[in-house]
Design goal:
The protein has 315 residues and is an all-alpha fold. It has one domain: Mitochondrial carrier fold (Alpha/alpha barrel), CATH 1.50.40.10. 74% of the residues lie in helices and 0% in strands. Helix 3 packs across helix 4 and helix 3 runs antiparallel to helix 12. The longest helix is centred in the middle third of the chain and has 31 residues. The chain is globular and about 65 Å long. It starts with a helix and ends with a helix. Belongs to the mitochondrial carrier (TC 2.A.29) family. One of its GO terms (cellular component) is mitochondrial inner membrane.
Length: 315
Amino acid sequence: MTDVSIIESSSYNSTISFLKKDSVASFIAGGFAGAISRTVVSPFERAKILFQLQGQGKANYNGMFPTIHKMYKDEGFKGLFRGNGLNCIRIFPYSAVQFYVYQKIKLSWLDYGEKELNNFQRLVAGGTCGVASVAVTYPLDLVRTRLSIQTANLAKLEKSKIKINEKPPGFVKLMLDIYKNEGGFLALYRGIWPTTLGVAPYVAINFAVYEQLKELIPNSTPMTKLLLGAISGGIAQTIMYPLDILRRRFQVINMSNNELGFQYKSVSDALVQIYKKEGVKGMYKGLTANLFKVIPSMAVSWLSYEVIKDSLLAL
């Protein structure tokens, strides 16, 4: 064997050893699982955002499938996936960090002699990884929200709506515009507080429910894992949905001189205003659309994660 062959063999073995590390496999599997699952449900994701940002008054978007049909009719096939490219760029590190941090915390506790995490520990680990993932990727989430609605037929956004025959600005230009015109670096993190309030407990519940269900059903089949992921995602999203409404509303404050009309002083002020103007239904606007998205998304995400991670560990 030549020196070159020895070096190549050593490099290959080192790479395989690196990929087989539990936390590394979790990072890679988590990233790909997030990107795959979000692409599958992209039309539902965009429909949900449009529902959330309609506010009170005339609704141009009503019902999940009529909305998807309207997006297709108004904007073509691309309209169904508008913002998804950026969403995948965002979701890969978001999901990767989430699974990586959760696994690191889990392994740290197991190193202290725990056989399995209890539900409280799962909630703490899930909440922590949720906060970490938001902190790393939030500006991408904000820009993705703006991209999702700039060509939409929202009544209050007529002045700044991008026409169908115009090319929408890319995410880099949009991010720079937000930075220059809406308050600098802090503008890229507008809405991070309600986002964190919503995401941390959502991820905590999602991980805790999934791990608990998996513990109750050992040696589960791929179809069972799909079902467990769907259940955990649906429960977590339904409980935390009002804070997802706040997340989107805060992200579009100051967009195009606030044509959408959302003015909130704080999270509590936003909740009071939404309740007064839109009632309890306002807190759950777009929930059905979101469940159409979340249930298959989390099912695909958990299954993809398990399959990809097992494949990496088996190298």
